[in-house]
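The passage that follows is intended for readers who have already worked through the single-chain material. We present the inputs for a multi-component assembly, then the predicted structure in tokenized form, and finally a short commentary. You are encouraged to pause after the input and sketch how you expect the pieces to fit together before reading on.
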Amino acid sequence: MPAVTITSYNPADPDDLVVAVEEPGAEAVRAAVGRARAAQGDWLAAGAGARSAALGRIADAVEAHAHELAALIVREVGKPSAEALGEVARTAAIWRYYAQAPYAPSGAVHETAAGPGLLLTRRRPYGVAGLIAPWNFPLAIPTWKAAPALAVGNAVVLKPAPEATACALRLAELAGLPEDVFTVLPGGAEEGAALVESVDVVSFTGSTGVGRAVVRAATERGVPVQAELGGLNAALVLPDADIAQAAGHIAAAIAGYAGQKCTATSRVIAVGAAYEPLREALVKALAAVDDAVCGPVINAAARERLTGAVSSAVGAGAVVLAGGRVPERAGWYVEPTLLAEVPAEHPLAREEFFGPIAVLHAAADLDEAVALANDTPHSLSTSVHTRSLDVALAAADRLDAGMIRVNAPSSGVDFHLPFGGAKGASHGEREQGQAALDFYTVSRTVSVLPGGGAL
Ligand code: NAD
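Having made your guess, compare it with the prediction:
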């Protein structure tokens, strides 16, 4: 039987094959995890100084190769160049941030309840962390999983998305960690499932359906698992907002990187008198979006799914306010699109489509806007546009989203704070910041009592 190959193609030029590698299969995953388990003890024993220095060197290497890495991101996943450079800079910053973590306290000292002695808590790594990543942030997501896992002394086996294979392989090469401490194993569903079956802690980012299956499999084995899934993110615009600024932010959140961020805006909710001016400003802002902001979508299937959803929504009575056509050009481009009057139960209003398409809704007041925004299980990020601090605070109290961004696009993440969704958009502990260091360690309580009588 011929070997199955994993391929990734340039979304802007589908004839350009970026990489082809043989699919390793489940047995190779188990072997890589076994080698990682054997290497983990020395990595932990090398100490905080060695781990800190190693992670710092990765930050340096990423920075030294910034232009090469950004060009690879552009070529492999179609990210516009400025965003690709931004992702590389963020990748270096994340390695540098977690390079400090090995020196941080790993527990606390407590008094015993009675008598002499010491009680300690101490956080220890699990062993081998299995990381499963999507393609849309091909360096930053693998990094925000791998860096904290490695900092606290785990070995890592990362399975990137097939569409981002070349980026992940290059990252592992540049990392230059001791053998088997950081392994990138290309693959698809078979390798991902085998990884979940063999590691000691699992971190997954990707679509909701796959994530739920990963959570079930890891939970069945009794290993800790976190999963960050799709989002159906809303932008709420109040009548007192700076409408031009809000439209600019929302257009960027709809069309930036062709809407392929988990935090992209796909529902715009205009409150009361904001509707008319916002509609006008948003249509203008979307029409002004160019290739520097909105590149191609990842592949032909994604483009078909998006254009099919728009046609079906129009068939069901939706009105196209902006875009809606497929540009006549090579590459998997879709016009930034805004629709109104999409029936409430149409998939475009209920599911994540992962493209530069949004639906405009009207709400009579803040209550109705919050109810609309909360009417989804995929609650990752919501933006609120208003000049009123009271409204901003009220919305922040009542919105179910994991991330609430006031007068900012729904897309955008600060890597040193906890990141994740609410309700069905997230499972388990948060990613990034200190939360990630907690996730990749388990706490032990140590009691040290005097051995030979009273102290
Ligand atoms: P995907 O779910 O198709 O794939 C994600 C990863 O899971 C890939 O590495 C894939 O090979 C692997 N996989 C597939 N089947 C598997 C299985 N049965 N067992 C184990 N692993 C398996 O997602 P994608 O298309 O790569 O990425 C886009 C999705 O990711 C969108 O839904 C987006 O919202 C989501 N995303 C979420 C966040 C977040 O932090 N919430 C961030 C980025 C992307």
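Commentary: The first helix runs from residue 26 to 45. The two ends are 71 Å apart (CA to CA). How closely did your sketch match?
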